[in-house]
Design goal:
Elements (H helix, E strand, L loop, with lengths): L1 H4 L7 H8 L1 E4 L7 E4 L1 H5 L1 H15 L14
Antiparallel strand pairs: 1-2
Helix pairs in contact: 2-4
Organism: Lithospermum erythrorhizon
Protein name: adenine phosphoribosyltransferase
EC number: 2.4.2.7
């Protein structure tokens, strides 16, 4: 869904990212499919692909601060 909505459908980088994310079924409760990204962080190629997609998406948006200083 995300790929099609953002013009990434067919992007080969998405497969490495998807394959690197561990799915934990029924966590924290039945019916939930928890997506554990810690395994993505351990896969150099998949993590680089993730960062590259973010850069490609936002590079022309003139963003001056990627984080909000105000947290709860």
């Amino acid at each position: 869904m995300f790929a099609a909505e953002n013009g990434l459908k067919g992007d080969p980088r998405l497969k490495s990212i998807s394959d690197a994310i561990r799915v934990v079924p029924h966590f924290p409760k039945p019916g939930i499919m928890f997506q554990d990204i810690t395994t993505l962080l351990l896969d150099h190629k998949a993590f680089k692909n993730t960062v590259d997609i973010f850069v490609d998406r936002y590079k022309d948006m003139n963003i001056s601060s990627p984080l909000d200083r105000h947290t709860r």
